[in-house]
Design brief:
The protein is mainly α. 84% of the residues lie in helices and 0% in strands.
Length: 152
């Protein structure tokens, strides 16, 4: 398809009309502050759990569980979307963004029923992460086993 110069210009004008204008520096600052705040919340939870007597590894697990639960809850209430619109990548990068993606896809397809909607679409985002995580960890485990077998 060959576009004329006039068509290209009309396309550029339309893109500028439709696409929101953003300030890169402001967007980065918002992402930094929100993502950092989520991480600070995680660190605070870690300290609280460790002060309750949990070992660091167990406390870290509880921090992850708590953050995922909080993200799922705020997604269900419709609040996480507003945070995402404000913070952009700052709300997506931490573990809370992954939980938001899983819950949001499940909520979106809930009206199609539990089996074909919720059950099938729940793993739209989580499925590839779980699959590649299992494959990578299995591959690394096999390599580790072979290295220790040979180097023995």
């Amino acid at each position: 398809m060959n576009m004329t110069e006039q068509g290209k210009q009309a396309y550029r004008v339309r893109v500028e009309q439709v696409c929101p204008q953003t300030n890169l520096l402001v967007g980065c600052a918002k992402a930094f502050v929100v993502g950092g705040t989520i991480c600070v919340l995680g660190q605070m939870l870690l300290e609280i759990y460790m002060n309750m007597g949990l070992e660091q590894q167990v406390a870290s697990t509880w921090v992850s569980v708590t953050l995922v639960f909080m993200s799922a809850l705020t997604t269900g209430l419709g609040w996480y979307d507003n945070l995402g619109k404000f913070a952009g990548a700052g709300s997506i990068i931490p573990i809370t963004g992954f939980a938001n993606g899983v819950v949001a896809s499940a909520i979106e397809f809930k009206k199609e029923g539990f089996v074909l909607g919720l059950g099938a679409k729940l793993f739209t985002i989580a499925g590839p992460v779980i699959l590649y995580g299992l494959l990578a960890s299995s591959g690394i485990g096999i390599i580790y086993y072979l290295v220790t077998l040979v180097g023995g």
